[in-house]
UniProtKB/TrEMBL annotation:
Its main location: nucleus. This is (apollo) hypothetical protein. GO terms for cellular component: spliceosomal complex. InterPro entries: BUD31 (IPR001748). It is found in: Nucleus. GO terms for biological process: mRNA splicing, via spliceosome. Belongs to the BUD31 (G10) family. Keywords: Nucleus. It holds the Pfam family BUD31. The keyword Nucleus applies.
Amino acid sequence: MPKVRRSLKAPPEGWELIEPTLEELEQKMREAETEPHEGKRKQESLWPIFKIHHQKSRYIYDLFYRRKAISSELYQYCLDEKIADANLIAKWKKTGYENLCCLRCLQTRDTNFATNCICRVAKRKLEEGRILECVHCGCRCSG
């Protein structure tokens, strides 16, 4: 199985603890990229990729900020090697963005009438019992 994409720079101490999980997520990413997309909309075929990208970034974020299980050197290494999305993690650190699924949901230019994505609307303002999917990343929002 191919390793997680890395530069020639040696990884810091603790890499061997998170490497198996990152390799598993990388394998899922390759499967999602090669999955046939006949019968799906263009955006729909990208949803599994966004989901796995979110999982990798959330895994690194949780290890560093919540559980404090990895060193700052290892965290910075993951950001430098683009294993985790630094911009997404920066948003998660801000109040109100803790559960943000992807950065595309923040861009108002990609929505009708230049409004928020449906997953950014407060759940209490949505219709009760109705399940909605974000057009950008496929996250499910239930009202």
